[in-house]
Amino acid sequence: MTLPTCASAKFNGILSFHAFPTHSDLRRQWLVNIRRDHFTITSHTRVCCRHFASDQLIEPTTLDGRRRLIKGAVPTLFEWNGYKQSLTRDHDYCSVPEPSALDISASAAEDLSKDVETLRKEIQELRVQREFGLQRFAGSDTDIRFYTRYI
Fold first, then answer.
1. Which pTM was predicted?
2. Cα 141 to Cα 137: distance, rounded to the nearest angstrom
3. Average pLDDT of span 31-50
4. pLDDT tens-digit readout, 94-150
5. What is the pLDDT of residues 70-88, one digit of tens each?
6. Per the count of CB atoms within 10 A, which of 27, 34, 138, 150 is most buried?
7. Environment class of residue 25 by beta-carbon count within 10 Å: exposed (0-12), middle (13-18) or buried (19+)?
């Protein structure tokens, strides 16, 4: 369970969540800083890493390691004391690609269309060559004589 006012209540691989300290003075300081009246702390209550200054966090030294707090760390970053989180978005769906990228895509599509048309014509010619019929030999007297045994 994270703090009720925190919007970062979902684990996403970037955030870390930290349990309340067991030392009574430090625990009391955390309670004062989070400004929650009549708040019951359980063994599952956590505070998101976004409420701690970066100098209070110890980054993991291994890939599977956990982010830890320095000794005596206290959450201090909250909306009521003027701290605002910068919203980072993984993708801006409203952005429009640069015109140069669109121009390249349009010219590439044109080139591909021309290639497709050329290949279709080539396929048609190969089909005609493959067929065994009079149309295949209509332009060649030698072939007609050979296949009809007409001398």
1. 0.47
2. 8
3. 82
4. 666 566 656 667 778 888 999 999 999 999 988 877 776 666 677 788 877 887 776
5. 898 988 877 766 666 655 5
6. 34
7. exposed
Place of tokens 């309340």: 20
Q: Which two tokens stand for residue 6?
A: 């925190």
Structure tokens at 12: 């996403």
Q: Are strands 46-48 and 57-58 parallel, antiparallel or unpaired?
A: unpaired
Distance in angstroms (rounded) separating the CA atoms of residues 106 and 84: 43
Cβ count near 71 (within 10 Å): 10
Q: Is residue 85 within a helix (H) or strand (E), and if so which, with residue range?
A: none
Q: How far apart are CA 27 and CA 40, in angstroms?
A: 12
* CA gap 139, 143 in Å, rounded: 9
Tell which residue, 42, 47, 56, has the closest CA to residue 15.
47
